[in-house]
Amino acid sequence: MFKRKEIGVLGWIILILILNIPILNVIFVIWALLSSRVNKTLKNFFTAYLIFWLLSFFGIFSVTFENLQGLFG
Predict the structure, then answer these.
(1) Under 8 Å CB-to-CB from 47, ≥6 apart: which residues?
(2) Cβ pair 29, 44 in contact under 8 A
(3) Residue 39's pLDDT is what?
(4) How does 44-66 read in b/e, with b if 16+ C-beta sit within 10 Å?
(5) Residue 40 contacts residue 57 (beta carbons within 8 Å)
(6) Is 73's pLDDT higher than 60?
(7) Burial class (CB in 10 A: 0-12, 13-18, 19+), 32
(8) What is the distance between the alpha carbons of residues 40 and 10, in angstroms, rounded to a whole number?
(9) Per-residue pLDDT tens for 18-68?
(10) pTM of the entire predicted model
(11) Distance from C-alpha of 18 to C-alpha of 31, rounded to nearest angstrom
């Protein structure tokens, strides 16, 4: 599914669903980054996803999220 040059809407929906499953998302991202069968667009997406996940894990965005919660509640 992720070998073709372009990914259709159904492919993106499946990808988003996979990335919402807690342990499977990290395994899938690492597999996609290490695999030679995944196209360049998805590798760039997974690289950005992993960077964002690591920044969130280390609390870089915690202040931003706390400020947003203050606006709405």
Answers:
(1) 33
(2) no
(3) 85
(4) ebbeebeeeeeeeeeeeeeeeee
(5) no
(6) no
(7) buried
(8) 19
(9) 888 988 888 888 888 898 888 888 889 889 888 888 887 777 666 666 666
(10) 0.66
(11) 13
